[in-house]
């Protein structure tokens, strides 16, 4: 069965041809890898990349159990001090070189 070409002047759009789609997909992959390393791969069954009606990339996390939300909150709490420390270190290095 031959593939029909759209009529000349017809609108044509594919999410696979947008930077937003690739950004959403890459972010989803990065998040999936971290959740897997934290032993939470099965806790986010609805995790996926998506685009809204305007073509903006979105990450769908989906519904999670209260236990999963608590565990994710704890992981984020633990990560905050280390990210603040690295930001402060970056700031002090920048100030020294100025």
Characterization of this structure:
It is built from two helices and two strands. The protein has helices at 19-37, 66-97; strands at 48-51, 57-60. It has a two-stranded antiparallel ribbon with strand order 1-2. It has 98 residues and is mainly α.
- Which class best fits the helix and strand makeup? mainly alpha
Coarse morphology? elongated
Helix and strand succession? HEEH
Let me know the largest β-sheet.
Answer: 2 strands, antiparallel
Q: Please give the order of strands in the largest beta sheet.
A: 1-2
Radius of gyration: 20 Å
Query: How helical, in percent, are the residues?
Result: 40-55%
Query: Termini, distance in Å?
Result: 66 Å
Number of strands: 2
Strand content: 5-15%
Discrete helix count: 2
Pick out the low-confidence regions: none
Give the rounded overall mean pLDDT.
83
Summarize the topology.
Layout: H1 19-37, E1 48-51, E2 57-60, H2 66-97
Antiparallel strand pairs: 1-2
List descriptors:
98 residues; mainly alpha; 2 helices; 2 strands
Task: Explain briefly what this protein structure is.
The chain is mainly alpha-helical. The protein has helices at 19-37, 66-97; strands at 48-51, 57-60. Strands 1-2 form a two-stranded antiparallel ribbon.
